[in-house]
Amino acid sequence: MSQNAKLTRGSIPGHLVSQTAPMIIGVAAIMSIGLVDSYFIGQLGSQQLAAISFIFPISVALSSLGVGIMVGINSVVARALGAGDDDRAARRANFGIVFAVGCGVVLGLALFLLMDPLFRLMNADEALMPFIRTYMKPFAISFPLLLAIMGINGVLRGQGEAQKTSLVSLTYAAANWVLDPILITGAFGFEGFGIAGAAYATAIGWACGIAMAFYLLRRTPLPFDLKLLKRCGVSESASAILSVAGPAAFSNAINPIGLSILTALVAIEGQAAVAGFGAAGRLQSFAVVPLLALSGAIGGIVGQNWGANKLDRARKAVVYAGVFSVGYGLAIAAVLFSFGEWFADFFTEEAAVIEQFARYLTIAAWGYAGYGLLIVGNGVLNSVGKAGLALAQSCARVFLVMLPFAWFLRGSWGADAVYGAELAANVLGGLVSAVVVWWVLKAKPDTRKDAEPPAETQAA
Known about the structure:
This protein is mostly helical. It is 81% helix and 0% strand.
């Protein structure tokens, strides 16, 4: 066991708090970008707000693929440190960063080329397409910057450096907060770029985040060193990361993919329903920040202890995380249920949009506890190399529960069918995840999958 595997020692509740608390700040900062964007874009008009509602699930889906790559890097680094192999952790960390940037280039290019057919498939109104194109072109071009941040944060998380990852997130979020009002609606005599300004602000924020990320990485035991790439064993390192990153990326992307389909179904009900659904979804993303932070923090804790064969510590961490997920999920649901229309007033003054916003929260919010169990469970499964199971349960949640529910009831329930579908999917998904995770953690870890050829073989 490496001395750098600091999460294998000390109090489990203490590690959960120390790793989750800074991530709450970091994830909240990231989620606030969507809220700030929506606030200023909402001032441009309902068409622009509807356009960003179509854009939101696509941008989240692509970002989720990046999160999956980050999870894969986190997993292999944490388990290598837990097993006491610092050299392997360093090689895979450096390869992971380069690999993440390469994936960002591919995804950004694909988005740029497939933009129009993708949004037409979502039933985007032709009147909204100019707004969508204006935003998505700079977003797609700058997307590799986000993947670079994801790669570095994966290395930081694997080392248990939650505070550093949060500082990276705060850096690019703060840049976005400052630039949004200037670049979207204009300030200080500058007219602004409209909806495109949100994309420009995001891209500049990502560039600031990369600068901070590289600076912080230099101050850890696993700094970025291109010389290590010569010894990383490309096929071996790529296979190790992809064995987790591949399923994890699709597992993270499944929910926004489902959200894209739900948005298309809501679009049948009109632009007000789309605007209300989209704005409420961004508020929801902010409301579940502690659950998202916990799902990120649990990976490093369980991964290091699993790699060190400290199974009781891994199981204890999961129990504490599950109890928190249920308690917080029910508490925040009660708040959103009670004050839905009050929150809606921050986004729009249109009565029809406010009605759909509040209606969504009245129904869907009660599934947040189950959603917490699901994403924390996925974080656990990814950290122990069981990413395939995480993908399977995410797919089942969306394709066996959420979409059939919305599809078959949309004729009689209207938009409520979509909101009810989210509730049913989260409740059932959370219950299934709890059972699957506990079953997996009762088994002994198979460390053979982490074994590598000798260093001289890799270099060859």
